[in-house]
Amino acid sequence: MQDRPQTWNRTIALAITGASGSKYGLRLLQCLLESGARVYLMVSQAGQVVLKLEAGIKIPARPAAAERYLAERFAARPGQLRVFGRRQWTAPVASGTNPPDAMVVCPCTTGTLATIASGMCRELIDRAADVTLKEHRKLILVVRETPFSTIHLENMLRLSRAGALIMPANPGFYFGPQTVEALVDFMVARVLDHLEISHRLTPRWGRDGE
Q1: Domain range 11-194, its CATH number among 3.40.50.2000, 3.40.190.10, 3.40.50.1950, 3.40.50.300
Q2: Quick one: 165 exposed, middle or buried, by C-beta within 10 A (0-12, 13-18, 19+)?
Q3: Core vs surface per residue 88-109: b (16+ CB within 10 A) or e
Q4: N or C: less crowded end of the chain, CB within 10 Å?
Q5: Which residues pair with residue 139 across a beta bridge?
Q6: H/E/C letters for each residue in 32-60?
Q7: Average per-residue pLDDT in the chain?
Q8: Tens of pLDDT along 108-167?
Q9: Does pTM top 0.85 for this prediction?
Q10: Other C-beta atoms within 10 Å of 124: how many?
């Protein structure tokens, strides 16, 4: 008797681009895998550079090698993590016939923001975001930049009107964070909330002692 194919509770596309804040993306990847979601991961060329600078992680250039490396690092189950190349147009996320349940770009550069807002699908990340929008699935953009120019703000407004959720990487301090990891978890928790994935990363407002 053959084993039944693995089923996943959600399929989430995650893109890590070259904005500062790669630890947000890594922590989100970890939490998604731990939640039992299947993850379709895309990392931009600049994202690979920033991951090495900020997190000391050198992701292999080839998608298959990157998939093996990250699956082992985060203890993903067989088939739970898929990594796609920057122009791998045969990936499921490239077509509206097989869209993910939701997509997150974390962190999101203002360049990626602009490309998605323009509808110009130069690489797979752009196309996946375009598919997510046109199929009316949730698209979350964790933009990391300061200050924002008028162009940045206009692109965010345009995407918000198109249905995207703009979530700048602005962690809160009201819960008394003592570490960088706590600040990272604050933002990741907000993303997970909007993906409707349960977690215990941070205390919730008005729930002292829970």
Answers
A1: 3.40.50.1950
A2: middle
A3: eeebbbbeeeebbbbbbbbbbb
A4: N
A5: 103
A6: HHHHCCEEEEEECHHHHHHHHHHHCCCCC
A7: 93
A8: 999 999 999 999 999 999 999 999 999 999 999 999 999 999 999 999 999 999 999 999
A9: yes
A10: 23
19-37 residue pLDDT tens: 999 999 999 999 999 999 9
pLDDT in tens, 43-97: 999 999 999 999 999 999 999 999 999 999 999 999 999 999 999 999 999 999 9
What distance in Å separates the CA atoms of residue 165 and residue 16, rounded to the nearest whole number? Answer: 16
Q: How far is CA 37 from the centre of its chain?
A: 13
Burial group, residue 135, by CB count within 10 angstroms (0-12, 13-18, 19+): middle
Tell me how long the chain is: 210
Q: Scanning the structure block, which residue is given the tokens 């703000």?
A: 153
Q: Residue 96 corresponds to which amino acid?
A: G
Token pair of 161 as six digits: 């009107």
Q: Residues 122, 98: contact at Cβ < 8 Å?
A: no
pLDDT band at 2 (very low <50, low <70, confident <90, very high): very low
